[in-house]
Amino acid sequence: MVVPRLKLFAVPLIVALGLGPQACQSAAAPPADGAIRLGPESGPQLRMTYLGSGGWIMEHDGVQILAAPLFSNPDLLRTGLDGISSDTLEVDRFMGRFDVTGARAILVGHAHYDHLMDVPRVAAVHARAARILGSRTVENTLGTWSGLRDRVDTLEAWAGDQETVGQWIHFGPRARVMPLRSLHGPHFDGHTLYQGTVDRPRATPPRWATEWLDGQTFAFLVDFLDDRGDVTFRVYYQDAVAPAPLGFAPAALIAERPVDVAVLVPATFEEVAWHPEAIVANLRPRRILLGHWEDFFQPIDGEAEPVPLTDLAEFERRLGRVFDGDVRRPEPLTELTIGRWVEPSAATPGPES
């Protein structure tokens, strides 16, 4: 059942009026920005470009997988009180900085506006060859109005979980994606905003934030493969906090090959138990990148501040208790180039760059 619109607006209005808890404005570690190189400069390289909100470009050896970006960033009061729509000029301004013409897929973990609203413009203009991977609600929200329905692959039948290895979706011989059953955790005091499913194709685009319903939520494993079909890089991606064990990768796959890079979400982490501790234990990642950490009610080329209702410093403190590897919190539009992990026993002596 869809919660009435006035109730759904309650949390945005509380935050906007300064009546609710505020995000901590400092963090345990400074954010990463610009162009950053991590790990060995020789050998295979993975490029992770943070586009803001839940958006990423993942690229290895010329193969690109996108995660759904948001560039429109309507402000909080407009989101709560007025209609919203994709700002195609802003989408073109920022997405146009990157050549994604060869992107194979756009991953959409759930159908809230901050993950799906700009996808039609990105798919139609910038990533014209990309398949759109999402739920039945993603497909029906895009409906007939977007002209993209024949490019959407629904994932419900393909998904895995901690106990079950799902089906890989292959994008040529060099990349594959596995959806993982997840759930969008609450935003505030146990309430999840814009919750529900869209069961029939829409003929017109959603106008209100309340019409961008989450639907089934997915996390993803993304494998980049070498010429023999072996995994060169394994990336885990989530775009919403989920209560364990939802969003977990299959234990059998991780036993064979842990995750090289895990993209984790701090936003509203305190609304679920044992995040990030449980997902770190599941994935055994070698590096962690934080996404969807910044206030997406602000323009992405402004000064990034933590998303409201999230104590970012506390998230990073808890993460540090269970993970002693490299953690980065990139500013929007930051590009990170990551060398393939070298096991410590085989590593060349000296500090990693």
Run of helices and strands: HEEEEHHEHHEHEEEEEHEHEHEE
Which class do the helix and strand fractions yield?
alpha/beta
Beta-strand residue percentage: 15-25%
Rg computed from alpha carbons, rounded to a whole number of angstroms: 19 Å
User: Averaged pLDDT, please?
Assistant: 90
SSE blueprint:
Elements: H1 5-16, E1 35-38, E2 45-52, E3 55-60, E4 63-67, H2 76-81, H3 88-95, E5 105-107, H4 113-116, H5 119-126, E6 131-134, H6 136-142, E7 152-154, E8 169-170, E9 175-182, E10 217-225, E11 231-237, H7 251-256, E12 261-264, H8 277-283, E13 287-290, H9 312-322, E14 326-328, E15 335-339
Parallel strand pairs: 1-15, 4-5, 5-6, 6-7, 11-12, 12-13, 13-14
Antiparallel strand pairs: 2-3, 2-15, 3-4, 8-9, 9-10, 10-11
Helix pairs in contact: 3-5
